[in-house]
Amino acid sequence: MSKSLARVAAALQAAGIPSAPVEAKGEIRTAEAAAEQAGVAVDQIVKSILFQGESGRLFLFLTAGGNRVDPVKAAALAGEPLSRAEVEVVRRVTGFAIGGVAPLGHLTPLPAFLDPRLLDFADVWAAAGTPRHMFRAAPEELLRATGAKVAHFTG
Ligand code: 5CA
Fold first, then answer.
1. Which of 12, 96, 99, 138 maximizes the CB count within 10 A of its CB?
2. Cα 81 to the chain's mean position, in Å?
């Protein structure tokens, strides 16, 4: 098992989430691909998107698969202007490569916000640290495990 996958499995266990990562048949680098594999709606996929503030602070936006982070709304929550975190920054801070960034199990936990659209579903699916693995959880479990605040940041 890859270190990234093992870290997500351990984080799920530590958070008391009764779920284990599952391997997909093919690569699931996008929400659309993940939704097709899981047989669920695109919005049932959790995208874990990092933004970086002018100060250098990083923020995690747990976003429904069909939604996009609105940088202006996101900046209002963060309290400073934001831009997409660089690929290398994402890897260093989360320990995951783009395409497999999980919502939890990061090397450095970040302040997080959760898209209320995800709360419309009993279960959602998220990347498990690799572009081939995902796990299922109740959105409320993700909220608790990440300490995220529910907030509108899409547009
Ligand atoms: N495994 C899938 C489904 S969960 C997955 O990780 N999807 S994702 O949406 O969370 O991750 C892909 C996301 O990475 C894209 O939506 C995009 O927001 C981000 N991304 C892609 N390329 C870059 C890049 N060059 N720099 C920063 N972020 C990127």
1. 96
2. 21
Rg over alpha carbons for the chain, rounded to the nearest Å, is: 14
Tokens of 114: 């959760």
Residue nearest to atom 24 of ligand 1 (CA): 87
Q: Which of 47, 51, 67, 96 to mutate to test the pocket of ligand 1 (most atoms within 8 A of CB)?
A: 47
Report residue 78 CA to chain centroid gap. 17
Contact 147, 95 (CB under 8 A): no
Query: Which run of H or of E encompasses 52?
Result: strand 45-53
What tokens appear for 43 in the block?
């919005």
Tens of pLDDT, residue by residue over 65-107, are: 999 999 999 999 999 999 999 999 999 999 999 999 999 999 9
Q: What is the pLDDT of residues 28-75, one digit of tens each?
A: 999 999 999 999 999 999 999 999 999 999 999 999 999 999 999 999
